[in-house]
Amino acid sequence: MATAGAIVRGLISPCCKIFDSPKHPEIGDISSQHNIITHALRISSRGLHFAAAHKNLRLKAHCNPLSHLFGEEVEDDVLREECGVVGIYGDPEAARLCYLALHALQHRGQEGAGIVTATEGVLHSITGVGLVADVFDESKLNQLPGSQAIGHVRYSTAGSSMLKNVQPFVAGYRFGSVGVAHNGNLVNYKTLRAMLEESGSIFNTSSDTEVVLHLIAISKARPFLQRLVDACGQLEGAYSMVFLTDDKLVAVRDPYGFRPLVMGRRANGAVVFASETCALDLIEAKYEREVNPGEVVVVDTEGISSLCLLPHQQRKACIFEHIYFSLPNSLVFGRSVYHSRYTFGQILAEEAPVECDVVIAVPDSGVVAALGYAARAKVPFQQGLIRSHYVGRTFIEPSQKIRDFGVKLKLAPVRAVLEGKRVVVVDDSIVRGTTSSKIVRLIKGAGAKEVHMRIASPPIIGSCYYGVDTPSREELISNRFSVEDTRIFIGADSLAFLPLEKLRDLLVEEAPTFCDACFSGNYAVPVRDDKVKRVGDFVDDGLNGRVASGWNTSSQGESQGSILKINSR
């Protein structure tokens, strides 16, 4: 009998490539399970049913209650990546490796984390609100047996983190069960959801990722991969996803390649997918290549298969991955993030020189660009601002008077570096401008003679609909003000941005075409819904457990989370 993979390979397109690889060992025996809730799935031909245990949700506000008084506005005045994904196949320590890889991707999402593993036809899932270290400990990892796993870290907005929206999602459908972790945003989410609800689908979350699972469930095809192809053919926008079934790991990327997804391999042959190469490095997986735009990569006991999913489109990789989101030690879209940021700083020094005594950075994302600026300007780089990494977030609304202390708690000026100096301060971007103005005041308050702000990206004039949490256009200061008016607003002696033309010239030399819609207003995929779901938006259906409200059903103060086991047979 032909395998599902073989069937799909015959159905897709002649551009498919098949790669052979050593077969992986069979999944080991299921380990002893403790405190795991077994959920019966009601499976019908109409669609899928999520496993959920509302009575067992454990949520709590676990941050320092004073931190939000000082830090909220600093955190809110930045662009945020929605999430990071990991997939591992063929390693007996899959859950622990996934846990470590998620640590490496923690910068991509700090408000929720989850891991799903598969063994003997059963998917095991643990998800929770908070950092990776908050959600998982040794006992939790022991409840995730199997040699294949997917993981996810998530960021949400509006001060509300809901356990039921934390991925990976696990659901059952007529022919089995599937887990999915998604990085991106679907611009036709509302249209698809309305269509599915009209046909009888019931949604359990407010995430666009659930749409994908419903589309898989209602597909008329029998093989899972063909169902996935059918589903992805209806999606518009950005998606880098990893799927886990009882016998295979699948990675897929949208035809434009908006969000990154890379592939690597460990010495024992285990295959690893991740949003950034820094995750591969941490678990000692050798980087092999990107998952190409429009590609489906299938890993199972037969090896690795590569399928062409959708018609080729001009690549539109997100430029902000190189400006802010990704770690400097990552290789993203085939290019070193460190090299990009260093070069951005050098170009800034050439395009916007100014007489100065010292160059400093707004840590941490502005450091590499500041090093490039200082090297090209032949001016010393010094650490003029010290960032505190121990200030968390809670959900207490502070008065504006108290909130104004926020920058001082997040960033401490070094008077010995700044006093009496003409200072160039390099940052990655300006969003609303409120934080920049406070940083300028902070530096001048430490005795700086002059403060010259240099931004290692062009002015942000448009919102992102492809997986980045951005304010509305009306809130973006560069959409409302000229550069000179922005300079006056933040109080700097001078202000300059990286020219968009220079950014394009630099990247065209060594990298594919990038999406610069937030700078240019030119969107590769039209926004079809009247109001596109913003990253982290949610629908309050009255069932959401919110950290914002301080809801805590855990009597023992345990780490918040949900544990479940799904039998796919």
TrEMBL record:
<feature type="compositionally biased region" description="Polar residues">
    <location>
        <begin position="550"/>
        <end position="569"/>
    </location>
</feature>
<protein>
    <recommendedName>
        <fullName>amidophosphoribosyltransferase</fullName>
        <ecNumber>2.4.2.14</ecNumber>
    </recommendedName>
</protein>
<comment type="similarity">
    <text>In the C-terminal section; belongs to the purine/pyrimidine phosphoribosyltransferase family.</text>
</comment>
<feature type="region of interest" description="Disordered">
    <location>
        <begin position="549"/>
        <end position="569"/>
    </location>
</feature>
<keyword id="KW-0808">Transferase</keyword>
<dbReference type="InterPro" id="IPR035584">
    <property type="entry name" value="PurF_N"/>
</dbReference>
<dbReference type="InterPro" id="IPR000836">
    <property type="entry name" value="PRTase_dom"/>
</dbReference>
<dbReference type="Pfam" id="PF13537">
    <property type="entry name" value="GATase_7"/>
</dbReference>
<keyword id="KW-0328">Glycosyltransferase</keyword>
<dbReference type="InterPro" id="IPR017932">
    <property type="entry name" value="GATase_2_dom"/>
</dbReference>
<dbReference type="InterPro" id="IPR005854">
    <property type="entry name" value="PurF"/>
</dbReference>
<comment type="pathway">
    <text>Purine metabolism; IMP biosynthesis via de novo pathway; N(1)-(5-phospho-D-ribosyl)glycinamide from 5-phospho-alpha-D-ribose 1-diphosphate: step 1/2.</text>
</comment>
<dbReference type="GO" id="GO:0004044">
    <property type="term" value="F:amidophosphoribosyltransferase activity"/>
</dbReference>
<dbReference type="Pfam" id="PF00156">
    <property type="entry name" value="Pribosyltran"/>
</dbReference>
<feature type="domain" description="Glutamine amidotransferase type-2">
    <location>
        <begin position="83"/>
        <end position="302"/>
    </location>
</feature>
<dbReference type="GO" id="GO:0006189">
    <property type="term" value="P:'de novo' IMP biosynthetic process"/>
</dbReference>
<dbReference type="InterPro" id="IPR029057">
    <property type="entry name" value="PRTase-like"/>
</dbReference>
<dbReference type="GO" id="GO:0009113">
    <property type="term" value="P:purine nucleobase biosynthetic process"/>
</dbReference>
<dbReference type="InterPro" id="IPR029055">
    <property type="entry name" value="Ntn_hydrolases_N"/>
</dbReference>
<keyword id="KW-0658">Purine biosynthesis</keyword>
<keyword id="KW-0315">Glutamine amidotransferase</keyword>
